Amino acid sequence: MSFTDTFLNGEQKLFKHATLTPMQKLTLRFVVVGLVYYLFAAFEGMLMRMHLVTPEVMFDDKQYFAIMTAHPLVGIFGSSYSIVFGAFLFLVPFLMKKPLWSFKLANWTLWLIAIGTFIFWFAGFLSHYSPLYTLYWPLPADFTQFSVVGGIFFILGIAIVMLGTVFFVINIFKTIAYTPEGFEKQPKGVLRAALGFKRMKNADGTYTVSTPVAAIARGTVDTALNAGIIIFTGVLILIYMIAALLGQDLKHTSIDALLYKNWFWWGLDLIADGLVLIFVAGTWYLLATLITGKKLFMEKWARVALLVEMIVSWFVWSHHLMSDQAQPAFLKIFSGEMLTAFELITQGLAFFITLATLWQARPLKMSNPLKFLLGGLLGFALAVPAGIMQADLGLNRILHNTQWIVGPHVHVAILVGLTMTLYSAIYTLLPILTNGAKLYSQKLANFHFWAHLLGGIGMGAFMGMAGLNGMLRRTVYHEAEFQPYMILAALAGSLLLLSFLAFFFNILMTIGLNGLLGIFKPSKLKKDILLP
Amino acid sequence: MVDSSLVLYGQTVAYTLYVVVILLLMIWFGYRITSSKEASVVKPALFYSFVSFLVVLGVSLHLITHETIPWKPLDLNRDKVTPDKVFEIFIKDHTFILPKDTLEIKTNELVLFRVHSSDLTYGFGLFRPDNSMVFQMQVIPGHENDVLWKFLKPEVFSIRSTEYSGWKGHNMMIPHAVVVN
What we know:
- The complex is a heterodimer of chains A (532) and B (181).
- With 532 residues, chain A is mainly alpha-helical.
- Chain A contains 15 helices and no strands.
- In chain B, the strands form two sheets. In chain B, strands 3-9-8-5-6 form a five-stranded mixed sheet, with no helix packed on it. Chain B has a four-stranded mixed sheet with strand order 2-1-4-7.
- Chain B is elongated, with a radius of gyration of 23 Å.
- At the A-B interface, helix 3, helix 8, helix 10, helix 11 and helix 12 of A face helix 1, helix 2, helix 3, strand 5 and strand 6 of B.
């Protein structure tokens, strides 16, 4: 096949979009949207890296902070939420062997997240609305710095994403609990069993709700709570914005900044220390069992750890307020230090259980799903202890808000830990979702793996070194104070961008341009069947 | 009191060693699961030992830092300590307002920095001439924000806001604002 032919029709013309079920197409649409937004986030990340090397060359600091505000939100909501929600809306019915509760609602989730992300990104890009994702009160309502109209569109965009998230939550819980027409009656209490509050097994000793579905259910609880807090906070900020539009200046002091910081971090932390860890652990378990074809090692403990992780995630928010001197010492020690340390245990358990499951199935072929899974495990093995260290009252005093936090902890967790786990899932699901399409190039997949791994760890490491030398995370240094570290971090970041472009090209050549466009054409097959 | 640069050095060494170990472990693991000819069982005892190790590690880390990082117990008990000197610092409209142009401190003095914000959330940190951080804290409007610190040797520090307060506050810094004689 010529290059042009492959580019148009995919590797060996194996991908035929007309054979896809509506569910397969929907899942692939989620993945495409997620990857496009990943490209947005990666490109924005590179722009920021370059600004930190030579500030004010491409744009000013005002634009930089607008990018910094949108970048994590595009990455988390536009990219990770899209890919994860799409995968789970497919996997829950797939693993429970019944149709999705509502295909229509899932479609709404996709478009609400896609459109909402674009709205808040575009609002930030045009208006430079930049209170960062932390929204520390009263910064989001400081209209001496930010445009009210820009802010309204920004918050509306986030609200639309959250509405899509709520639809996802409803769909997941309903799918777990409902009995589809013509199916055997669902056992009573199946949702409670999924959440870990009821023990339920089949006659053959297997769990009625599989461990990956249990993980999805438990992570979805945190997703729901997080959406509630973000919507509540968004409404509050909107009230101030609408009042400002009407010429009224509401008092900022009506809201206690520390109380606000507590509830907002309580909700926000349910992503970083809740649903991400739970979803990732569940995905590791699923991938390990799919790769090996064996039962999960110590499955009972894996389920216990998932439940503990969910409960712990509701009580650890205070590690984000270790440097807030008005925060009660009890919360700093109990929530910030002690309960946060539980995450070392729960995530350590997930790490060990996944490795042991792989070990017991030796010898294994170093396939793409396996190598990316190992990369994902490595990412969290590096990032979780870095987080535990900064969640210490002594160390936090000299680490908080430095590049250490965003380097070895945040970016290594997200880029190496989470993203490599997602890549492993994508490489695993690709043949299932495409009815057997063949990957265009293994060499590109290998480059994708090594460039992403080295780029992710390298960028985190150089940011971390700058942080240990005093570089702050939300400050632009105009006197080249940390330039050598920033040059190295930018080089590592460009490796990440290159690795993604190689992956994107590889997937495009696998399914072809016509196949890609075909994913967005309606399927003629029935909506309640998952696979043809 | 141990200087914060020494604590950072210790942390750098510890974390770097950990990174090397975990990288080697994953390389070894990747090699062994693909090269071995036969499967082997992982004993539950290994699992329980690992869990016990994590529990001990999780608990001991904070105890160790409590005993080795001097500003940690000092910070927790700062309301019971009488400082040698108190500096009241105000922040408004992205500007630090200091009681004097230069805050002078004698070595081994226990100094309380009490920082007030009348509008936004800011940060307050002291930085050495090489830009490394001595310490920092958050400054929340409407609340008392204080940090107690002991200075061991003659040095000059800059004050910098360590929290983002909008694009107007990107350069909130006063060079050579604190002098330890």
